[in-house]
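A reminder before we start the practical. When you read a complex entry, don't treat the lines as separate problems. The point of joint prediction is that each chain is placed relative to the others, so the output describes one connected object in space. Small molecules and nucleic acid strands, if listed, are placed in the same frame. In the example below there are three entries. Take a minute to note the order of the lines before looking further.
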Amino acid sequence: MHRISIKTRSDVDFQDITPQVQELVASSGVESGVCYILVPHTTAAVTVNEHADPSVVEDIIAHLEVMVPRHKNYRHGEGNSPAHIKASLMGNSEVILIDGGRLFLGTWQGIFFCEFDGPRNRNLLVKIIADKP
Amino acid sequence: MHRISIKTRSDVDFQDITPQVQELVASSGVESGVCYILVPHTTAAVTVNEHADPSVVEDIIAHLEVMVPRHKNYRHGEGNSPAHIKASLMGNSEVILIDGGRLFLGTWQGIFFCEFDGPRNRNLLVKIIADKP
Amino acid sequence: MHRISIKTRSDVDFQDITPQVQELVASSGVESGVCYILVPHTTAAVTVNEHADPSVVEDIIAHLEVMVPRHKNYRHGEGNSPAHIKASLMGNSEVILIDGGRLFLGTWQGIFFCEFDGPRNRNLLVKIIADKP
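Here is the predicted structure of the whole assembly.
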């Protein structure tokens, strides 16, 4: 189990973590297997989407804000209920296949750590399992 | 593959199932591995979110109700389309890492079975896989 | 790692791919294990929901359209931001258990490839892992 440290820069912040995960896969020496990515937080998430044009992620962020508005009556006293709701909508884990010693992703796909209640210091857990241990 | 029986208490009902899953992991004797949690229903789901303050889950439930309103024209004759839609938004599976013989969860994280069309008797499937079989 | 080719027929199109995945599991000879389903695209997804009554999926499609409207100001120049947002809401992977040589699904569950920016030729990746390699 590997741990990646992430320093988020603002309230809501998606960071492309593909290179860091790719590096862990490369240094594991696993040729074929499965890579699990886990977020151990309840106001952050992980998603796979386009990382070629940064405006895609800006649109996802902006529309999540519309779907889960900030100024509303929520019960949770800390005031960060929208962040919890967005986290469950995006999900806190991803599974990615490893093939030829690399993450098998589509042409446009990147892995994003999704901060919804930052800025904070966050962790991401990565587990790499080879097909034939 | 293990099966956990769940009796939901109302129409929409999130139940913290962390202790039951933790117990299965403990009795499996697996020190390091992966735990899969699967919901074999189409109007229920599973999510990981804060279980310290119950108002977080109340806010998630209430806001899903806003996002997927009940009184609207849906085509599906049974009248439970909102439950199906919410189930796909939350997802019917979770993957959790096992470390040191326990589920590896963040400080605030708990696993919730999400009923969207209850009350009913439901099942949850749990599969535990050790790193080294 | 197996690849399934999918030809989507319209802009938004959910296709029941349960039989194709079931066939791959059967021909793998794996009795007990895990099946991963991965979508290598950023405007398509995969979800598990009811496949007995097709109106359920029609309701999911129609309501996603309401939640993520098409005619709105998005920044991404290609005009398919709603498809990217829906893809992250549904998720690009599923994990399904294999038991008795078959996918272990609930009575009403089917696996759907979700096209959000079609019609196109798409791929789906399937990986089958036996409990005891």
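Discuss with your neighbour: The radius of gyration of chain B is 16 Å. What might explain this?
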